[in-house]
Amino acid sequence: MHRRFGGRGKPGAGRKAAFAVAHTLIRVIHQVLTTGQPYTDLGHDFYTRRVNPETQTRTLIARLEALSGKKFIVVDAPGTPSDPGTPRQPRAA
Q1: Closest CA to 64 of 25, 38, 45, 90
Q2: 72-51-57 Cα angle (round to 5)
Q3: Quick check: pTM over 0.85?
């Protein structure tokens, strides 16, 4: 987490990382105490898995449009069952 918050280049990165870890621990402890259930690890990719790919695609296209001032249309999404090998390239409309 230290690297994620800027690493050695930012002086407050260590403090931010420590607070983030402490916050996570507090949330875990609260959940265990309120439910009475033992702790189960959600996995290293929990936050990655919970992102909806369609929503993320729309968000990234909207950001690209805002930065470029152009409208983009997605022709083909990667990993679709119809054609999994075709790379997606946005086109300016």
Answers
A1: 90
A2: 5
A3: no
